Amino acid sequence: DADRCESCYGAESEDIRCCNTCDDVREAYRRRGWAFKNPDTIEQCKREGFSQKMQEQKNEGCQVYGFLEVNKVAGNFHFAPGKSFQQSHVHVHDLQSFGLDNINMTHYIKHLSFGRDYPGIVNPLDGTDVTAQQASMMFQYFVKVVPTVYMKVDGEVVRTNQFSVTRHEKIANGLIGDQGLPGVFVLYDTCHPEEN
Ligand SMILES: *[C@@H]1O[C@H](CO)[C@@H](O)[C@H](O)[C@H]1NC(C)=O
User: Helix (H, G, I), strand (E, B), or coil: what is residue 23?
Assistant: First the structure.
């Protein structure tokens, strides 16, 4: 029935009045800041075989690429399983539906740079190949970004950044929050020229 209006299990809002699919319910939960814990108790998800799909995909990896525009202040970006949402001003991921205890964070960083490249620039994370020795590891890359001006012989000026990095890893304890979310985290900070 195209005109049906199924329940959002209490997460209805102005924008989302009906949840006719499992994704609708997830989105409604996400906007409320609710964790999406038991897909098997949600009719729409049962109907669509959500848990089954998760099972089928559980050994798959993914390839991520793109650009981020950020302010020149400290921050982080991360690759972690689950949909993210805000809960009491904390950024969390609803990874319960993936099974908390067996996430393999093996990863390969093909390229990461902060700004344009110039001839001979060294981006120290390029080609980083890390095998997770244990399940549900949290990998952290602490990056110090150094603003750099490169002048070509023809006078063209490239304003870009170099960076240095230290890596830290630990076993995520499975709790949600910055204590232990399995994933790959890049935590960056910039050196301000006036400090030097
Ligand atoms: C994670 O996957 C990689 C690549 O398939 C494998 O070498 C590694 O042993 C796995 N780690 C765990 C903890 O299962």
Answer: helix
